Amino acid sequence: xxxxxxxxxxxxxxxxxxxxxxxxxxxxxxxxxxxxxxxxxxxxxxxxxxxxxxxxxxxxxxxxxxxxxxxxxxxxxxxxxxxxxxxxxxxxxxxxxxxxxxxxxxxxxxxxxxxxxxxxxxxxxxxxxxxxxxxxxxxxxxxxxxxxxxxxxxxxxxxxxxxxxxxxxxxxxxxxxxxxxxxxxxxxxxxxxxxxxxxxxxxxxxxxxxxxxxxxxxxxxxxxxxxxxxxxxxxxxxxxxxxxxxxxxxxxxxxxxxxxxxxxxxxxxxxxxxxxxxxxxxxxxxxxxxxxxxxxxxxxxxxxxxxxxxxxxxxxxxxxxxxxxxxxxxxxxxxxxxxxxxxxxxxxxxxxx
Length: 353
Hints:
The chain is of the alpha/beta class and 353 residues long. The protein has helices at 66-74, 96-100, 112-117, 139-144, 176-189, 193-211, 239-247, 265-271, 291-300, 308-311, 329-342, and strands at residues 18-21, 43-47, 50-54, 61-63, 81-85, 104-106, 122-125, 149-151, 160-161, 169-170, 220-226, 232-233, 250-251, 275-279, 315-318. It folds into 2 domains: 18-26 and 34-207, 3-Layer(aba) Sandwich (Rossmann fold), CATH 3.40.50; 213-350, 3-Layer(aba) Sandwich (Rossmann fold). The protein contains 11 helices and 15 strands.
């Protein structure tokens, strides 16, 4: 079992994601909606090697992962989401009311039949393995029924290898532009491109404000997602890498390109990171899911209790979603930056270590 139940697989944006109008007349009145193609439709998406055509804006979308669900909710599309599934965390702050109106098909992966019961006209997922063999169903299974599918390009872009084992590996670092690109793509797919631009602008401003005048170039961070016996720790180039680069710090395991390699505690002790960024999960699939359980382990285990970050209690708690490529990666940047300031590490050359 891999580190995440939000997986089936990881999320990385394909630079090649294109949404292009192909053949919409653009001349129909509001009364004609439903009788003829909406302006700008059909819309063709080149997504992860699949040509996906939307004949009209989706009205009954099903989102199979929390990450894609939160994008849709943030775009104000709750009334067009017929179901959601696979959650690791409480919903993003500010989206509680919108989320409450969306049926939860399953806390983890739903069955193919359960999804079909929701009568979807569009299915989205954060990970390739959600819509692949061993996942909810393959994209081809949905497409044979006339249901277009979309996978977060973050998980299928150039540089992401999902066949390398575990959660895959990346030869090219994830950038926030990947997350912003997905937001724009989904906004255009639903015919609300202006909302996508507004959300991207808001996220960029949050990043700018949270990282302004932050000098932590000598500070090392370690990201722990789950599992106490054989912990899943962040490699160089996924969402934690994007967070680390945004704040200007260093990842203790920047020398591995695996998305979430399992690394022994003895190796962690040798690296002795300055700060531990800890996943605070509400799911119950691995050992040490909650931050409380992780900290209890760190402070009592002989291999970890003498780590610098443990002795000085330098813990930054993040949701699981913030540690995957998603709108909440920005939340991760804000919290890590705030933690570094609180620990007195944000001064010249990272000072107070």
